[in-house]
Every structure is written in C-alpha cells, then in structure tokens.
Amino acid sequence: MALQWMILTYVVAAEAVIALLLTLPSPKYIKSTIVSLVSLILQPALFIIPFAGFQLLDIYWKNEHRLMCTSEICTAAERDRFEKSIYKAQRNVILCAASILLYWSVYRICKYHKEIQSLEQVEKRYKDQ
C-alpha cells in the first residue's frame, strides 16, 4: 500500500527539481535544451494526473467509510491510531495536490518558453527585412 505513495513522492520530488531547473537563470542554449528535453518527458509523464486523481478518490472513499473513534469506548491506542490515519490522509492529499500543481507548472513554464522562442524568431525575421 505504501508503494503508491513512495512513487508519488518521488514523482513530486522529480517535478520540483525540474521546475527548479526551468526557473533558474541559465544561458539561452542550455535553457532551450532543458526545455526541449522536459517537453519530451511531459507527455509520457501525464500519467501522474489520473494516478493522483485516483489516489484522491481512494482517500475520499476511505474517509467516508472510516470507523469513527470519538466515543468513550475507544481506548487511547485506538484513538491514536485513528488520529494517525487522519494525519496520513491529510499528508497524502497534499502530496496528490502538489503532484498535479507541479505538473501543471512545469507544463506552463515549457509552453511559455516555447512561445517566447517563437516570438523571438518572429522579431528576428522582422529585423532582418
């Protein structure tokens, strides 16, 4: 069960590193190379959106069908276990949201960079005329 969250954690870490690489100032040639490589990776990496969405649905379903431990019948250990599961679910929701948000951010950064490149090419053609 924890494997899916480890995968999602590694994907979020990789997306964060890629977003950092894309936003760091660098020479034009290196930046365009990085953007072209990341653009090639973006389409296969789209699997993260439905994967995170499915995980969010799983968390919601488990939350709706979780046994509540709020009465006086619960022992301290049961109450601790219940609170720990709530904290884990909250952490996992943040992880899913971060993966979707970081994917979208990387996508938009690459798209903006490509638009800037195309506008620079148009400007260069007008200057050459």
TrEMBL record:
GO cellular component terms listed in the entry, alphabetical order: endoplasmic reticulum membrane
Species, as recorded: Fagus sylvatica (Beechnut)
Domain BAP29/BAP31 transmembrane span(s) in chain numbering: 1-121
Source organism phylogeny: Eukaryota, Viridiplantae, Streptophyta, Embryophyta, Tracheophyta
Family per similarity comment: Belongs to the BCAP29/BCAP31 family.
Transmembrane annotation, as ranges: 6-25, 37-57, 89-107
PANTHER family reported in the protein's UniProt record: BCR-ASSOCIATED PROTEIN, BAP, ENDOPLASMIC RETICULUM TRANSMEMBRANE PROTEIN
GO terms for biological process, alphabetical: endoplasmic reticulum to Golgi vesicle-mediated transport; intracellular protein transport; protein localization to endoplasmic reticulum exit site
Name of protein: Endoplasmic reticulum transmembrane protein
The entry's keywords: Endoplasmic reticulum, ER-Golgi transport, Membrane, Protein transport, Transmembrane, Transmembrane helix, Transport
